[in-house]
Design a protein that fits this description.
Strand content: under 5%
Distance between the termini: 19 Å
Shape: globular
Structural class: mainly alpha
Number of strands: 0
Helix content: over 70%
Number of helices: 15
CATH architecture: Up-down Bundle
CATH superfamily: MFS general substrate transporter like domains
Number of domains: 1
Radius of gyration: 20 Å
Oligomer: single chain
Largest sheet: none
Length: 419
Amino acid sequence: MPPRPLDALRRRDFRWFWLASLVSNTGGWMQNATIPYVVFQLTGRPGEVGLAGFFQYVPFMLMGVFGGALADRFPRRLLLLWAQVLQALVALALWWVVASGSATTASVAGLAFVAGLLGGLQTPVWQALVAELVPRDLLLGAVTLNSTQFNASRALGPFLAGVVIALWGPADAFLLNAVSFAAVVVVLAVIRVHSDARVRPERMALWSGVGEAARHLLATPALVACCVAIAAVAGLGSPLFSYLPVYGAKEYSVTGWQLGLLLGAGGIGAVVFAPALLNLQHRVRRAALLGGSMATYGAAVAAVGVVRSYPAAVVALLFFGGAYLSIAATLNSTIQLVVREDLRGTVIALYVMCLTGALPVGLFLWGAAADTFGLRPTTVGAGLLLVAATTVFVATGRFRVMAVADRARDVAAGTRPPD
């Protein structure tokens, strides 16, 4: 019988890791939402928000490949433990500079850069660890559940950030993020995963391992399609999140829970659409699912720039978040299903580099365009460009190569015999 969407949560280690991740990522999204808020309050310029976002996210690209290489060489559980502790210290530093009144754009961007370095190291390790917590037939559900908790935290974290900022100020949002890391630290201290005890082959030099992973990626059309898709999504559509505090302050003049709702609407949309995705992903071809989701994502971005009322913007952001969950789950599960096990961490890191390389460039270009043409025209133009790019990808058959992951999914679920 095919596995049910929530079966992965029956596994104790995955269940506890999933819950702890929800807590920690909620704190992380509080911080992600508060950084552009603080920068905009300091400067009043959208361009400065984009510049700070550039320094916040570009280190993910710089460090992700090292994180992937470490994930293929050392126990992933221990790597994550150290990453969580160090990120908590950075969050405490952000709390101190803001609470003391000494915050500047440079100090906030600098600490965000350090947090990005650690996040870049952690991300491929985190994703590779998920594959160790469940058997292969439950991997698709586990990846989607992992994406769902990430997006649930993307809803709850920014919403709480808006409330905390209104009640106590932005410094306390950083403090709560520092505390949230304790949940993952405790869980990682007690669970056991395969990489703790696996016998590793003789380790090749770092760059040799990266080179082999790159060759494997380029020789696997489904992996190339994932990288192309996430680069387009991250560069054109994802910068919108960092500019939502600007929309809240300049366009809608909202604070408190209303600002929190605007920041968290994307995550709420992901949670609302998650049950439908959990059922669809076992039946729908991922090429069709990805094309439709990317077009919806781009249209939602454009809609935020077009609509003039606060409620309409929230509705558009619900679709923005739901579409992103579908994109992320489809791409992440494709990689997990087709990648070579011995290169899993490094290939995931290369994929994350495509995302984290495109995002800071997109943030910088959004900021420059917003200062020149205005934020609304920039938002509409970026969304329409993503719709156009998606149309080209679909028309040229770029996503059809993902059928190999559909076959792997069906074989793992027992609904199709191995080739």
